[in-house]
Design a protein that fits this description.
By secondary structure, the chain is mainly α. It has helices at about 5-35, 45-55, 65-90, 95-120, 130-155. Helices cover about 75% and strands about 0% of the residues.
Length: about 160
Amino acid sequence: MRPTSLLERAALGGVAGFLSTVPMTWFMQEGFKQLPRHEKYPLPPREITEKVARDSRLDENTTHAQRRTLSIAAHFGYGTLTGALYGLMRRKPRNEAVWGGGYGVLVWIASYLALLPAMKILRPATQHPARRNLLMIGAHVVWGMSLGVLCRTMAAKR
């Protein structure tokens, strides 16, 4: 039985979004290890957390380990939130992995081309090296595909 209420669909998507952040994070970390030494830069969740810490003067009061924990928590929180949105929009597509992958790309576009630059947290993706953008798009596709499959699996089990 499929979840019917908005709250059930959002909760299902949120749980799936949280869980699907695991393969996405692994993909990002492994991909960044493959970049040439001169193109090494922090993973976006860490880069975002470092910038927020500096701008809000939290940098003076937090350790590196605390900022790393914050970046991981924020990344999983964002995955949960955007997963909940997917759960609300989900309408039982034929190939949930493909739809989820497309949704992952849309989340990347909204985040890295619009939302984060507008908030002055990150430079627009157009100002980053192409390899970084390809890696991030790939990570979001992995996240979205995992999200779609998990939503379908979890809904089928209900």
